[in-house]
Amino acid sequence: MAGNQDPCGYYSVLGVKKSATSAEIKKAFKAKAQQLHPDKNRAPEATRQFQFVNEAYRVLGDAEARAEYDAQSYKTEDATSPSTGRAVEAIACSICHKISAQPRYVIYRHVFSVIFVTWRGGHQGIFCSKCGAKQAYKDSLRTWLLGWWGIPWGPIYSGQAIFSNMFGGKQPALNNFRILSWQAFYFASLNRRDLARAVARDALAFSEKIAPHEKDRDPETARIVAAMKALTTSSNDLSPAPVLKNLWGVGSTAFKVQSAAMALVVLVLASLALVSISRSQAPKTAYKHVPPVEHAAASVPQAPEFSEPAVPLPATGKIRKLWRVDSRTVLAPLEVVTAVGSPNYYLKLVDWNTHSPLLVFFVRSGEKTTIEVPVGNYELRYAAGERWYGEEYLFGPGTAHRKAEDAFQFRADGERVSGFTVELIKQSGGNLKETDIEPSEF
Ligand SMILES: [Zn+2]
């Protein structure tokens, strides 16, 4: 390549190659700065050098500033004019050193995060499309693996870097205009006019993206634009210039590979999320989350495979009444009271003689209900527990089944009817004698 590759000597003062990564530049700067720091180095020359090293790092340490600096390498009055007859050297890939029709100046980003800290790094330089693609894969893979794990910038920077690399990296317009126009002159100097015209057209496409202030600052840009226009139009043969297959954009292999990788990652994450959602729902109904209930262990064997879903508690009051009402039926009140903090109760009132149920009802913890029942002799059975799984499973494997030992005798004596109040509350001196029963007896 012709021209001064390091117009201000920034690369050489840091002692790095032009293809150095941002990490290499940073490392070189630190070493130099330490060596030249005025506190350590009293040599009169050191201070001036120290300032120069800092200036170099201000430019080369910043991806955009470095790109701008690199762009200066490609303006050399003599070389940009093929009419002078001078040999123009081609621009080669900084990795494989091949000369291609589509070299690009590209900045690829990668991200590295540890909990609360996120670093951004990059690789920049002139790449052929193949080496560019490889660099993009490397930087994106590194970001996929190491970029996300920082709060809050990890995911934001990682997403930006991966998308940018996928779309061919950041390609500064001025650099690429300079490189491509140089390459167009090179092909023209070889008398490969068709290729020169195709490359010149790519160069002109970049020239349209150059920021106006950059263009105005530099009269040379306008001059090269004019030269490129001349190249694309003033051709002896009138056959159209070949259109170069875009090796960098959306149709490129690099783009396809990276978008396929992204689709795969999204797919894997989505299925992981689905699995974790279905897992997190399951334990809500699992037996192990049912709070222990009094007598549960005694009356019910361990049943860890129980996995019925819990359902909302029935309202306090009657669930079913199983007697036929006629005008002669005399009703007496049955009141059931539970304490706050007690279990919920599912109760059956059963005929003392026939053992057929007469009434099924429910009393929630801390509530009470009064139900009119026909006079007669009854047995009261009840199941208690916290979570309700419906009438088939009652309160699940932890259900406590009990009955009151004595008969409840509801009487009608002329105008007076006598009912019962049952307090399902543990109290000293309580007169409700109860026994545990098997679920099958319930
Ligand atoms: Zn290459």
Explain what this protein looks like in three dimensions:
With 442 residues, the protein is α+β, with helices and mostly antiparallel strands. The chain has three domains: 10-61, Orthogonal Bundle (Helix Hairpins), CATH 1.10.287; 90-255, no CATH class; 296-441, no CATH class. It contains twelve helices and 13 strands. The strands form three sheets. Strands 3, 5, 6, 8, 9, 10, 11 and 13 form an eight-stranded antiparallel β-sheet that branches. Strand 1 (104-114) and strand 2 (117-127) form a beta hairpin. Helix 5 (129-146) runs parallel beside helix 11 and helix 8 (193-207) packs across helix 10. The protein is elongated and about 125 Å long. Bound molecules: zinc ion. Residues 93, 95-96, 98, 127-128, 130-131 line the site of zinc ion.
SSE map:
Layout: H1 10-14, H2 22-36, H3 44-60, H4 63-71, E1 104-114, E2 117-127, H5 129-146, H6 153-166, H7 173-189, H8 193-207, H9 212-217, H10 219-233, H11 253-281, H12 296-299, E3 317-321, E4 331-338, E5 344-351, E6 357-363, E7 368-374, E8 376-385, E9 400-404, E10 408-413, E11 416-418, E12 420-424, E13 434-436
Parallel strand pairs: 4-12
Antiparallel strand pairs: 1-2, 3-6, 4-7, 5-6, 5-8, 8-9, 8-10, 9-13, 10-11
Helix pairs in contact: 2-3, 4-7, 5-6, 5-11, 7-8, 7-10, 8-10
The protein binds zinc ion.
Zinc ion is lined by residues 93, 95-96, 98, 127-128, 130-131.
